[in-house]
């Protein structure tokens, strides 16, 4: 998403910076989970990553909505893992997930939903999108 918004024909630098930071944060979450598995004596089996099915968005609102959906999916997967850990009497994993992931997921879902709603009210394209991008630049 960051690359898309950084394109010269899209030119939303605030969105590019925002999604770039999101990407770095998600990578850090993945590395933290890998470190946790290794600390517990597990073996991480990495799977190949494929390019996202969608690489162009009509507007920033569509990208924020897709990012929100992805966060909701991640949250559901983390909750499933938490449930599995609880069912298998693994308090260390449940505590790890609660401390480093679950609350943050809820906060991120709320933040993205508010951003998407705010942008929608401003106007999902045109001047509203430009003004919202300026807000993202200031927040960076």
From TrEMBL:
Record protein name field: Ferritin
Domain of life, source organism: Eukaryota
EC code(s) of this entry: 1.16.3.1
GO biological process: intracellular iron ion homeostasis; iron ion transport
Biological role: Stores iron in a soluble, non-toxic, readily available form. Important for iron homeostasis. Iron is taken up in the ferrous form and deposited as ferric hydroxides after oxidation.
Family to which the UniProt record says this protein belongs: Belongs to the ferritin family.
EC top class, as a word: oxidoreductase
Single GO MF descriptor: ferroxidase activity
UniProt: Fe cation binding residues: 26, 29, 71, 105
Listed GO CC annotations: cytoplasm
């Amino acid at each position: 998403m960051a690359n898309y918004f950084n394109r010269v024909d899209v030119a939303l630098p605030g969105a590019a910076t925002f999604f770039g930071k999101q990407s770095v944060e998600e990578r850090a979450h993945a590395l933290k989970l890998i470190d946790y598995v290794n600390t517990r004596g597990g073996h991480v089996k990495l799977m190949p990553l494929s390019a996202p099915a969608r690489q162009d968005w009509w507007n920033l609102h569509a990208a924020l909505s897709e990012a929100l959906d992805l966060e909701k999916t991640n949250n559901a997967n983390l909750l499933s893992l938490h449930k599995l850990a609880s069912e298998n009497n693994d308090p260390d994993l449940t505590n790890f997930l609660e401390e480093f992931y679950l609350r943050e997921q809820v906060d991120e879902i709320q933040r993205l939903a508010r951003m998407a709603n705010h942008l929608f009210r401003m106007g999902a394209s045109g001047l509203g999108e430009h003004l919202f991008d300026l807000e993202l630049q200031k927040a960076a």
